[in-house]
Amino acid sequence: MTDASRQRSKRRPVRRLLGIAMLGVATFALAACTPAPDLAWQPPVRAAVTSFDEAVGDVAGAEPGSTPLDHYRIRDSAPAVDARWTEVPGQTDLNTRVRSLVVDTVGAFASRLGTVYEPEAAAAGAGLGSRGCEAGSSSTPAAEALAQGGATEGDALVITCEIVVASGSEFGERVRVVEGTVGTTPAVTRDESFVFFADTATAQQAGGADVITADAALSIWNELVLAARRELGALWDTQVAPPSEANAAVLAQGFADVTPTPDGGLRIGIPAGLLTPEMDVSGGADAAPPISPDGETTLVVGEPISHRFPSIHIAADAAAPMLTDLGRELVAASATPQPLLAGERPLAGERDVNCELFACVALTFDDGPAPITETLLGQLRDHDATATFFLVGPNVQRYPEIARQIDDDGHQLGNHSWSHPQLTTLDDKKIEEEVKKTNDAILAATGERPSVFRPPYGDVDARVLTKVGMPSILWDIDTLDWEGPPHETIVDRGANEAEAGSIILMHDIHDSTVDAVPEILTGLHDRGFVLVTIDQIFGGAPAAGNSYTSAR
């Protein structure tokens, strides 16, 4: 080795050490410049135009209580049925469609269980005074909705509803059907919703599918899948494949449940069974269940999204291209609330009431009219209730204006004789005179001739029936108010002893009776009763020559 070579070999370690030293300095410098990690950072996600949020605003329309609607509810224990719905005065076609859905569903459910639905009055305190549609009932979990129906064990059916638009001439109602079992082995076997729309000015009818265009399905599918992924915690979007034939059919079922929202968007029900590979964002079936961005809700991998969320909400911009002309009208009506335009509501005593569907009861008052009768009429008006008044002739002549008011308020007029005798003790001519004089007095005061009569003391026989020529209306519930019992006793007898088809006897000449009427009406409504006249409870005028104690 030459001297020059030895000098080069001695210098190499020095260069290597220098390079290592410089690398160390550079690393130190880079480390000194690195910011502290942001542990709260999350990758950006596309701005959502679709969500599962039900809080999209109140239903458009008039102030609560000012819209003229008819609210109904029925309940039976065998089969276990609880159904509530709302109808619009004057909208015969709409009302027929809604009621037919309820009646047909109840009938099919009862038939499947090998039984028959019959109107039934609930026990005191049942809470059935709450009737018609309930805000938020569409988004109540199905199992919870089923449990609210009153059944405690076995098969049950619950039908509930929600008004989705009531503004100007536009009205829409969603009816939800939930079936399953309650008790020790609860399960939901059906959860389906149907939307009914009507233009109250033209009576034009429509359904949820009429709100969106025929080619909107793919856009809705895309929004639904991406929204589901975000809800499951996905931090990236993906290319959504078109729905399979099976999923397309399931999605189409949801189009029966399309409604406008007050923010200009759409709410679309998610039918059971929708599931796609894009919704699996967990990394595989063996991974832990995904946690949604709120850190609380989870969805098991492979579980249809409808199990967790009943609907999606598509915002206004995304919804606009999907709307038909009808859809745009409904969205505009929902976004600009006006009082609902509806037909005039018939008086309670003049409505067509089906007492084979509803638990009916007839409240009857004897011996009037009297000055206190005017207070009673106001109470009936306040409770949207009706009654039948069996009048005595002299009181009609003494207070013709009160008799006329009874008729003007839609209540039924009945004959209770002239002098309140025991008719079976009179001769034929006197019986005829007792009835004719009172009929003539009622006709003169009101313009109406009674078609029913009540014999004083319930004293009637075949001879009396023949001479009177009208049906004899007795009773199966006697409050014995004429004896002057305590207030609580009158209320209990009047509100809690009746069954479906009962006829209740009271007298509108006693202050104590009239004082008890508001609580009696509230109690009867709470038990699910509809207050009707004698003609209504029998489905028409009962036959002459017969005597009736109830409509059972």
Automatic annotation (TrEMBL):
The keyword Hydrolase applies. Keywords: Hydrolase, Metal-binding, Signal. GO terms for biological process: carbohydrate metabolic process. The keyword Metal-binding applies. Pfam families: Polysacc_deac_1 (PF01522). Residues 1-31 form the signal peptide. Residues 359-532 form the NodB homology domain. GO terms for cellular component: membrane. PROSITE patterns: NODB, PROKAR_LIPOPROTEIN. GO terms for molecular function: hydrolase activity, acting on carbon-nitrogen (but not peptide) bonds; metal ion binding. PANTHER family: CHITIN DEACETYLASE 1-RELATED, GLYCOSYL TRANSFERASE-RELATED. This is Polysaccharide deacetylase family protein.
